[in-house]
Design brief:
alpha+beta; 3-stranded antiparallel sheet; globular; iron; GBBH-like_N
Length: 141
């Protein structure tokens, strides 16, 4: 018995309508700018003329890796939303998470090594386009 072509999904995913494949121009960057030194984030100009940008804070908390995805599903956190900090008598300052390294992954993605030690998320161009944070895209969701 062959299992080729079988894909396992959660009940929530099964209930959702299948995602339409985006046109190649929509998921192909014309220009990618990573403002690592400035610590501000990433901007992408797409071949279809659309422009997207994300802060590093959003990208770290919107990590697409399986561990982060499952934790968000379990806790109910939204993409890009930080985990709530435990209540303490004296809150401690925590430096914002920033990328220590930005690594191109083939022609389809970018990967970050974060200052908090996390580095398993691969941010595909399609994923980044689907989670665009511009006003027009947020209004559609």
């Amino acid at each position: 018995m062959s299992h080729e072509g079988i894909r396992f999904v959660s009940a929530e995913q099964a209930a959702q309508a299948p995602e339409q494949r985006l046109p190649i121009e929509a998921v192909t960057p014309a220009k990618v700018r990573v403002y690592k030194t400035e610590g501000t984030g990433v901007e992408i100009d797409w071949k279809d003329g659309h422009k997207s940008q994300w802060s590093f804070h959003w990208l770290r908390h919107g990590c697409p890796c399986a561990t982060c995805h499952e934790e968000r599903e379990h806790s109910g956190r939204k993409l890009g939303e930080a985990k709530p900090k435990p209540q303490t008598l004296l809150p401690m300052y925590e430096a914002p998470v920033r990328p220590l390294e930005v690594i191109p992954t083939g022609n389809y993605a970018v990967k970050f090594k974060w200052s908090d030690g996390h580095e398993s998320g691969i941010y595909s161009w399609e994923y980044l386009r689907r989670v665009c944070q511009c006003e027009a895209c947020l209004a559609k969701s």
